[in-house]
Amino acid sequence: MKYPYWLCALTLVVAMQASASIRQAPEPELRDLMQRTVAEAGSFQDRFDAEVWLLDMSTRLKRFMPDAGERLTLLRLVHQEASKAGLKPEWVLALIHAESHFDRFAISSVGAQGMMQVMPFWKAELGRPQDNLTDNATNLRYGCTILSYYLKKENGDINRALARYNGSLGKPHYPAKVLGFWQDFWYVRP
């Protein structure tokens, strides 16, 4: 359902005023950063959806990434790449939570790299040896594409798709961990 822009803006202003009595008003730099991030977030249906999702997820992500600019940039990328791949952005956040705890320089014991722990052999498979898997945009593009492929291969079964992503098909531990993070930290009620 589409709401007129003025109604959304009014609702947001009233909500911000009500919450201002509970917490301190955001710093002007953060407000400016949020406005720029929303303006660049083309994967959302409308500006209001972008503002609500980005603010909600930024608050949840703060414990892992204290820098607001870094958080908002990552969230915009997550939403963009997940949407492009037909995935729920919150699933991608849960997977990143499980794989790297939002450490873009994470390297696993088997050599997987970046936030989504992508195996470097994919660069050779794609003929793109120059790609940097610790670059969040690159890592998210690879990881979301891989997860989307496995989700389609498994006919929408997220448990099996996650197990394939992790290389642990037939073992329930990894999908349970990711979906646990999704339910406990990243789930958004409709």
Automatic annotation (TrEMBL):
Keywords, alphabetical: Signal
Transmembrane segments: none
UniProt cross-references to Gene3D superfamilies, sorted A to Z: 1.10.530.10
Pfam families registered for this protein in UniProt: SLT (PF01464)
UniProt cross-references to SUPFAM superfamilies, sorted A to Z: Lysozyme-like (SSF53955)
Signal peptide boundaries: 1-20
Highest taxon in the source lineage: Bacteria
Segments forming domain Transglycosylase SLT: 78-170
InterPro entries: Lysozyme-like_dom_sf (IPR023346), Transglycosylase_SLT_dom_1 (IPR008258)
Family designation: Belongs to the transglycosylase Slt family.
Protein name: Lytic transglycosylase domain-containing protein
The species this protein was found in: Stutzerimonas marianensis
